[in-house]
């Protein structure tokens, strides 16, 4: 099968997985469906290898760039200590403790190989978790912690993996050299990403000032930027992952995207959403395509060592349990540290619900980054056979990936189901507050315009030959607008009026309103098509009106997606 045919087959599988998820009423997360489709396709004879270097270059930069752009800067600043501890501190702790634990369980495997396996298992993948918690009653703080952790722990885990791999192959390891190299790679990546992004922002502003605001050109620049930053950092032997994240953060801080035309932002958002969706789906499809032959390799490995497959399965479960316990304890350490800091500074601190902690622990799902890391073991300049116990590392890592996905799919919905229903939805409160302030500012402006127009009209009445029809028309329009915005304001519950029942009622009312507006849009489209069929209007007229309806529907569906699914 040619590369073009393979690409088309993978894209078709993405469509099939989307239809399957809809048919299952979103009860099964999309990543699990995509992995299952990949397994079925592999058993039917579709074999597509996962090239680690190509995976790191093609998939990670745009996905991390998009995720970083969606990370709220305020929440990142507030939660930076927790995020950085989970992304860096917990990665190192997990690598060391889990490495020693694996070596204790299997002394025949060298400690360096155990560290390599533990380091490969340290990065987490939040895509599967996001599909499980999307639209459900989960605090925004927890979601921001998960997303922030995923931005950085890929880089820290891969750096630890690199040093452990070198130690396993050469038998030489220096903590001082590893620590200094870790800092150099990390801060080098951050500096390169921030510097290149700053240059890109300066160039963008020059182009905007000179009128080069073509939406297609701007969108293409946005898509290419993370790849350029990643390649520049990797060429300089720094972390391309951290460079891509840092570059996006700098772009957000400068606010240059707000200076672009509205059409540019809309098209860029659509393109990035499409790229993110397709690439995430491809990752899990490729993961599923690798599983059958990796499972065969695991069975063969067990036979080579005269062991039963259940013993290998028990080892995988033990490694997963160790990683889970380390993560659970690490989360509590972070919570206690924040409590102690708040107490010393005489600030209030609210302990999270125990189910939130359990949910956060189960959210440590391993994914394609882990698989790409272990598959890259032979892809080095030395003889591939020089790495000891390669089959062992790949088999155990694959088992932990599958087990973590299954456990998350079972445990996370259960945790969400039993979370207290009165948990504050900070994002919903802030959105309500923002809409309230926007409407209040709008009403103030309209009232000022109304007063000014009435004054102009009264002055025109004093002049006998004056035509005041324009003022009358303006007052009529202002009156309609004032009534419209006052009605909208009366429907919004402010943050001070948001007990659970009031908030639930407001959400239900909003859901009904949005559903009715979608019905109206559907009717308008049908009427528009009927006019075309009757040849009362031409295709161009239909296209112009259709675009207006599309933009209106986009706004409505965006609001629908933000509504909780269980209301």
TrEMBL record:
InterPro entries: Cation/H_exchanger_CPA1, Cation/H_exchanger_CPA1_bac, Cation/H_exchanger_TM
KW tRNA-binding (keyword) present: no
Superkingdom classification of source: Bacteria
Annotated Cation/H+ exchanger transmembrane domain residues: 13-413
Localization (cell): Cell inner membrane; Cell membrane
Any Gene Ontology biological process: regulation of intracellular pH
Residues passing through the membrane, by range: 35-60, 81-102, 108-134, 181-203, 215-233, 277-295, 315-336, 357-380, 392-416
Principal location listed in the UniProt entry: membrane
Pfam family of the protein (one): Na_H_Exchanger
Annotated GO MF terms: potassium:proton antiporter activity; sodium:proton antiporter activity
Family matches, as NCBIfam families: a_cpa1
Stated role: Na(+)/H(+) antiporter that extrudes sodium in exchange for external protons.
Record-stated family: Belongs to the monovalent cation:proton antiporter 1 (CPA1) transporter (TC 2.A.36) family.
Protein's UniProt name: Sodium/hydrogen antiporter
Organism of this sequence: Gluconobacter cerinus
């Amino acid at each position: 099968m040619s590369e073009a045919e393979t690409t088309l087959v993978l894209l078709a599988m993405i469509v099939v997985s989307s239809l399957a998820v809809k048919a299952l009423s979103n009860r099964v997360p999309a990543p699990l469906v995509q992995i299952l489709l990949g397994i079925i396709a592999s058993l039917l004879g579709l074999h597509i290898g996962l090239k680690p270097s190509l995976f790191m270059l093609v998939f990670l930069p745009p996905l991390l760039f998009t995720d970083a752009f969606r990370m709220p800067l305020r929440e990142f600043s507030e939660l930076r200590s927790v995020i950085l501890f989970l992304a860096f501190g917990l990665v190192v702790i997990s690598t060391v403790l889990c490495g020693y634990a694996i070596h204790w369980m299997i002394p025949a495997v060298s400690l360096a190989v155990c560290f390599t396996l533990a380091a490969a298992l340290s990065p987490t993948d939040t895509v599967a978790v996001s599909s499980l918690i999307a639209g459900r009653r989960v605090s925004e703080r927890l979601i921001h912690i998960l997303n922030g952790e995923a931005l950085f722990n890929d880089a820290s885990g891969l750096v630890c993996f690199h040093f452990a791999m070198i130690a396993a192959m050469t038998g030489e390891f220096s903590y001082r050299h590893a620590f200094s190299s870790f800092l150099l790679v990390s801060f080098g990546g951050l500096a390169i990403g921030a510097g290149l992004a700053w240059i890109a922002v300066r160039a963008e502003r020059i182009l905007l000032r000179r009128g080069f605001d073509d939406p297609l050109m701007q969108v293409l620049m946005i898509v290419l930027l993370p790849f350029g930053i990643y390649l520049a950092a990797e060429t300089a032997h720094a972390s391309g992952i951290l460079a891509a994240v840092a570059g996006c953060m700098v772009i957000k801080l400068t606010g240059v995207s707000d200076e672009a035309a509205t059409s540019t932002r809309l098209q860029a958002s659509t393109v990035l959403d499409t790229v993110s969706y397709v690439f995430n789906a491809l990752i899990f499809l490729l993961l599923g395509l690798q599983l059958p032959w990796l499972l065969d390799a695991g069975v063969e490995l067990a036979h080579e060592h005269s062991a039963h497959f259940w013993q290998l399965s028990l080892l995988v479960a033990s490694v997963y349990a160790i990683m889970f316990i380390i993560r659970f304890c690490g989360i509590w350490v972070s919570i206690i540290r924040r409590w102690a800091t708040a107490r010393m500074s005489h600030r209030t601190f609210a302990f999270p619900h125990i189910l939130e902690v359990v949910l956060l622990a189960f959210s440590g799902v391993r994914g394609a980054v882990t698989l790409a890391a272990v598959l890259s073991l032979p892809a080095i300049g030395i003889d591939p056979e020089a790495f000891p116990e390669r089959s062992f590392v790949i088999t155990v890592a694959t088992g932990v990936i599958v087990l973590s996905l299954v456990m998350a799919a079972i445990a996370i919905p259960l945790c969400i189901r039993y979370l207290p229903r009165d948990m504050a939805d900070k994002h919903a409160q802030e959105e309500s507050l923002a809409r309230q302030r926007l409407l209040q500012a709008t009403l103030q402006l309209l009232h000022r315009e109304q007063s000014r127009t009435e004054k102009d009209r009264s002055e025109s009445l004093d002049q006998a030959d004056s035509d005041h029809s324009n003022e009358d028309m303006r007052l009529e329009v202002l009156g309609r607008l004032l009534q419209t915005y006052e009605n909208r304001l009366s429907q919004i519950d402010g943050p001070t009026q948001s007990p659970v029942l009031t908030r639930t009622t407001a959400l239900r009312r909003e859901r009904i309103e949005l559903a009715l507006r979608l019905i109206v849009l559907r009717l308008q489209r049908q009427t528009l098509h009927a006019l075309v069929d009757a040849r009362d209007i031409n295709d161009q007229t239909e296209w112009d009106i259709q675009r207006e309806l599309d933009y209106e529907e986009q706004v409505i569906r965006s609001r629908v997606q933000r509504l909780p699914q269980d209301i």
